[in-house]
Amino acid sequence: MTTERRDAESTNSRPPSMADVASVAGVSHQTVSRVLNDHPNVREDTRQRVLQAIEQLGYRRNRAARALATARTSTIGILTVGNSNFGPANTVLGIESAARAEGYFVSVSSLEASDAAGAQLALGHLVDQGVDGIIVVAPLAEVAQVVERASLNVPVVVVAANPLAEPTDALRYVCADQRFGARAVTEYLIELGHRRIAHVVGQENWIDAAERRTEWRRVLEEHAVQGREYRAEGWSAADGYAVGRQVADDIAAGQGPTAVFAANDYIALGLLRALWERGLQVPEDVSVVGFDDVESSAFYIPALTTVRQPFGALGKSAMSALSALSAGEPGGEGRFAATLEPELIVRASTAPPRAARD
To answer: Nearest-CA neighbor of 133 among 179, 178, 102?
Structure first.
């Protein structure tokens, strides 16, 4: 058996190595390493030869060896509240997509309890895995406080509209502008002629929900419009249904709102059901607006007016901010690396109040 044949059989019996790539491309081991690490000092024709050799051999980097050599794992951690909440779940999907595009693996840790102890435990779990950075998709006041106090030795990006956040060398925020969205809803309802506008407030410890409530109240005061708060126990349609029964009672008593701005689309769905059961028509008797623009909101009866949040873009912005922090770049001015504007989507669940139509 010839030496060349033995070498070929040896190569075929194991995964191809960087040395194999160098041999096929006719370059040094160091040149292959430079190409793999996107080093700028490589001629383009040489880079193409190396890439062709990689494709020909089916070479895959030994990530464990690379981690030992660079002290980096090419893995980012995501701390989230789980997949039961539409907004965080869709933001996580956006982060995962952006991370894969940049060559990162993703490790997700979900909070079982929204308290400081749970957040500390979950953050510690991610750090113990040796992640290169962490993105927090849990817009809860308790979690934000834990993150800001923690010394994690890795860059951290928080997806939340936290008005109290302070930037550090390793911490930034990205957010959808919740106040912008709430203002758009409230001003739209006022323009339709509504003068009694209720808001079903989300859970108190959710930063984004608190921001929407603050802006809703501010717009009402600017226009001297009456407002009333209803508080949902959670984010589900069942929680909205419970509030909707109370709203229906108030309308029947002549003290109810002519428009309701719900904390999210699922709560709005529960409202629609409760109002329908009491014989109230939407939007003829009361207008209803949601928040988030879930996939099914256009198919509610009636189709739901809502605020579309840029969840995919949020995920990409969070990943970009994390990459900037990892590279030692400022990652934006002040505490926010990016602030994105949501969009009001007008559908059939809103109309001028009956008095304005008569």
So the answer is: 102
